[in-house]
Design a protein that fits this description.
Elements lengths: L7 H19 L3 E4 L4 H14 L8 E5 L5 H14 L3 E5 H7 L15 H12 L3 E3 L16 E4 L27 E4 L7 H11 L10 E8 L2 E4 L2 E2 L5 E2 L9 E6 L12 E2 L5 H10 L19 H6 L4
Helix pairs in contact: 1-2, 2-6, 6-7
Length: 308
């Protein structure tokens, strides 16, 4: 009898499948967060391997800021339809109309306000667990979080009040009104994600690959300008004195348009992205997610307020 030696990716995949099945077994009303980004795309593949040929034991949920990149939103809708799974979309703009989210300025990033809309969606559908694609290597606050992250009845996260996970034993039980955020790929790195995408031949939104785009240099970062939304609205128009450049860039992470910056790149294939990721010295969110750059909008503070 021959035995198969599991690769690093095999072990990570098996762990993620185990965690996702634990959620399905322990929780009454779980939901899988799916934005159309690369991490949530990997989560869909994990769900396929965990539950196919049956239907997923949970719907998909996207908290849309209303200012997400059109390419990603279109991919989100098409992929959910291809899988035949239910996709629930709730928008920060809905919360703005209700008055539960109030922007300080019209051009303020809506990213941090997703916490309000997420908590409203959790209450609306009575979800007891949200399965997300967050990884510990993304940001120092995420590194404090457990695989099964407990949130109280107000949706708040307390890093000092988390459950032990010795021997990979996970406890997802909660009282009514409380919530668990489960992170099956918590132990993955950005490199693991791209190698998994390469191995599984997963389709991606086009903005992850190198392409020409009008940009300006703003606040030490590259900012895309004149971005057209599906409804025709144009975001990030150049400011007075800014020189518009036509640059070849790609996105390492995607989110709300006003706070998500691309990087210069000629990586137009997954294979090239893997090589580029191996040689970079800049963290994934370090120069590309501008909402992580200020103490007011720090990841840890947002998570304490109910963020993913």
């Amino acid at each position: 009898m021959t035995t198969k030696t599991l690769s690093h990716l095999d072990w990570l995949e098996a762990e993620a499948i185990h965690i996702m099945r634990e959620v399905a077994g322990q929780c009454e009303r779980p939901v899988l967060l799916f934005s159309g980004g690369k991490d949530s795309i990997c989560m869909l593949r994990i769900a396929e391997k965990a539950f196919r040929p049956g239907k997923f034991p949970f719907p998909l949920l996207h908290i849309d800021t209303g200012h997400n990149y059109r390419e990603v939103v279109e991919f989100r809708d098409r992929r959910a339809a291809e899988l035949g799974e239910r996709l629930i979309v709730r928008s920060v703009e809905d919360s703005m109309r209700r008055g539960t989210v109030v922007l300080k300025t019209p051009d303020e990033s809506r990213n941090k306000h997703q916490a309000v809309t997420l908590l409203e969606a959790i209450a609306e559908f009575e979800f007891d667990c949200c399965i997300g694609g967050a990884r510990r290597d993304e940001e120092k606050a995420r590194a404090k979080e457990r695989v099964m992250s407990f949130r109280d009845e107000f949706g708040q996260w307390d890093p000092k009040n988390q459950r032990p996970e010795l021997w990979s034993l996970y406890n997802a039980r909660v009282h009514r009104g409380e919530n668990i955020r489960a992170f099956p790929i918590s132990n993955w790195t950005e490199m693991d994600v791209w190698q998994y995408i390469e191995r599984e031949k997963l389709e991606l939104p086009s903005i992850y690959f190198a392409h020409q785009r009008p940009v300006v240099m703003r606040g030490g970062a590259i900012m895309p300008v004149n971005v057209t939304l599906a409804g025709g609205e144009v975001l990030n128009q150049p400011r007075a004195g800014e020189a518009v450049l036509d640059m070849q860039v790609r996105f390492r992470t995607v989110g709300d348009i006003p706070c998500t910056a691309p990087v210069p790149s000629d990586a137009d294939s997954v294979e090239k992205i893997v090589l580029e990721t191996a040689s970079t010295t800049i963290t994934e969110r370090g120069a590309t997610r501008l909402d992580d750059q200020t103490s007011e909008a720090s990841m840890e503070q947002r998570k304490k307020e109910g963020y993913f």
